[in-house]
Design goal:
By secondary structure, the protein is of the alpha+beta class. It has two domains: 27-178 and 238-328, 2-Layer Sandwich (BirA Bifunctional Protein, domain 2), CATH 3.30.930.10; 339-434, Anticodon-binding domain (Rossmann fold). Helix content is 37%, strand content 20%. The chain has helices at residues 3-7, 27-44, 58-65, 70-75, 95-104, 148-164, 180-196, 203-208, 213-216, 225-229, 240-255, 300-303, 318-328, 349-361, 379-389, 399-403, 427-431; strands at 48-49, 55-57, 77-80, 87-90, 113-122, 134-143, 170-176, 261-262, 274-282, 290-296, 311-317, 339-342, 366-368, 393-396, 406-411, 419-423. The strands form three sheets. An eight-stranded mixed sheet has the order 1-5-6-11-10-9-7-8. Strands 13-12-14-15-16 form a five-stranded mixed sheet, with helices on both faces. It has a three-stranded antiparallel sheet with strand order 2-4-3. A hairpin with a 6-residue loop joins strand 3 (77-80) and strand 4. Helix 2 (27-44) runs antiparallel to helix 6 (148-164) and helix 6 runs parallel beside helix 11 (240-255). The longest helix is centred in the N-terminal third of the chain and has 18 residues, at 27-44. It is elongated and about 90 Å long.
């Protein structure tokens, strides 16, 4: 430090960006647990992982999601690349980027693909419970298959996940948005309906009346509920093929005892959907109750410049799912090491550390007591730290034991502090007795 900086007043504390959260221990253990459950389940369904950039060209979202959507109109973090002037956006969702990658790398060349991703998304929303500016999604997407069986497979996959996470009271809502020509007829009826009740429309709805009237059904304004409730239903405009697709999805769900409710007003927030759309909703999280949403998007691949290919997928909100886990899932024990090494004197460090390395190699989780830089601290304070760590055993590397080639193993959880000594030259033989996993 130079003399000048040393004299300056204490630096002002910098804080993170509003609505963007740090995920720290012990909460991060829940995240890792959820991610592990997802990886296992995806593997059982033969879905493969993709990892995609967080920044994409702005045009991808404008074209993919639709210009007249909440996300594109007001929620995107967009900026110009200072070096080359390119318009870029922090991804607000995962599907558009995934489709961009699938097209760019010609992934459908050999047939359909089942893919999944996990990662942060960015939307400039008003931060509140269950709604953040950086949040995380896990998404599953199936591309190249047009049949109702993959729609159903994705719903079964999500339902299995809720089961594995111990979630109850998650209900499934289902709708069909039909095909573009069916939507055209519905759109005309919808505009007529809203025009008839123009006095009941809010500003957003008035603005969207002619550009994107379907979006009005997705309103979050409770005052609009009656006029939305009485609006013409898209389901009544579906032709034979769309109805057959919808019925086939329902039949597979019925055969697998998946309960659902048809919600004719469910339209989802992006323009890319057609046919099947669905949401998983809970009443336990207040107004941010949708934990997962998805549907078919058969025209997006083409819109992004690829050879036409059908597709369907969903995305879940990790923060909301974890909050639900906390509320009704099985409680997860905070992670704790198997052993805590108590090291009375720095002279014992080399042997202690070498022993811990052998234990770790044998699968034991071992935490070393670390000193202040001026010694290891009193035994009392070391035992306190050992207890606080939650370790099942304390390993005491005392001078007398070491001189005999031994270490003391003391139980920290049984209340009686039972202890024994073990040989330092036979660590692999007793390592397993310390393992909790
Ligand atoms: P909402 O209607 O709650 O705004 P959405 O329709 O905008 O949700 P999607 O784009 O379908 O949400 O994203 C899928 C899931 O991601 C949502 O169901 C939700 O669980 C989660 N999600 C969306 N936006 C946020 C956010 N700002 N903060 C936290 N989670 C979010
Ligand atoms: Mg939203």
């Amino acid at each position: 430090m130079t003399e000048q900086t040393a004299k300056q007043p204490k630096a002002q504390k910098l804080v993170g960006v509003k609505g963007m959260n740090d995920i720290l221990p012990p909460d991060s253990a829940q995240w890792e647990w959820l991610e592990a459950q997802v990886r296992g389940l995806m593997a059982r369904y033969a879905y493969r992982n993709v990892r995609l950039p967080i920044v994409e060209p702005t045009a991808l979202f404008v074209r993919g999601l639709g210009e007249v959507t909440d996300i594109v109109e007001k929620e995107m973090y967009s900026f110009e690349d200072r070096l080359n002037g390119e318009q870029l956006t922090l991804r607000p969702e995962g599907t558009a980027g995934l489709v961009r990658a699938v097209v760019e790398h010609n992934l459908l060349y050999e047939g359909g693909k089942r893919l999944y991703y996990m990662g942060p998304m960015f939307r400039h929303e008003r931060p509140q419970r269950g709604r953040y500016r950086q949040f995380h999604q896990i998404g599953a997407e199936v591309l190249g298959f047009g049949g109702p069986e993959v729609d159903a497979e994705l719903i079964l996959l999500a339902s299995d996940l809720w089961k594995e996470l111990g979630l109850k009271d998650v209900r499934l809502e289902l709708n069909s948005l039909g095909q573009p020509d069916e939507r055209k007829a519905h759109r005309t009826a919808l505009i007529a309906h809203f025009e008839q009740h123009a006095e009941l429309l809010d500003e957003d709805a008035k603005r969207r009346l002619h550009s994107n009237p379907l979006r009005i059904l997705d309103t979050k304004n409770p005052a609009m509920a009656p006029v939305v409730e009485s609006a013409p239903k898209l389901l009544d405009f579906l032709g034979e093929a769309s109805l057959a697709h919808f019925n086939a999805v329902k039949a597979i769900l019925d055969a697998n005892d998946i309960a659902y409710r048809i919600n004719p007003r469910l339209v989802r927030g992006m323009d890319y959907y057609n046919l099947t759309v669905f949401e998983f909703i809970t009443e336990s999280l207040g107004s941010q109750g949708t934990i997962c949403g998805g549907g078919r998007y058969d025209y997006l691949v083409e819109q992004v410049g690829g050879k036409p290919a059908p597709a369907v997928g969903w995305a879940l909100g990790v923060e909301r799912v974890l909050e639900l886990v906390k509320e009704q899932g099985e409680a997860l024990a905070a992670p704790a090491p198997d052993v805590y090494a108590i090291i009375p004197d720095t002279a014992a460090l080399p042997v202690a550390i070498k022993t811990l390395q052998v234990l770790r190699a044998a699968g034991v989780s071992a935490q070393m007591h670390a000193g202040t830089g001026e010694g290891m601290g009193s035994m009392k304070s070391q035992f306190k730290k050992a207890d606080a760590s939650g370790a099942a055993f304390g390993l005491i590397f005392g001078g007398d034991e070491l001189a005999r080639g031994e270490v003391t193993v003391k139980s920290l959880r049984d209340g009686q502090g039972a202890q024994r000594t073990e040989r330092l030259d036979h660590v692999p033989e007793w390592a397993a007795s310390l393992k909790s996993l």
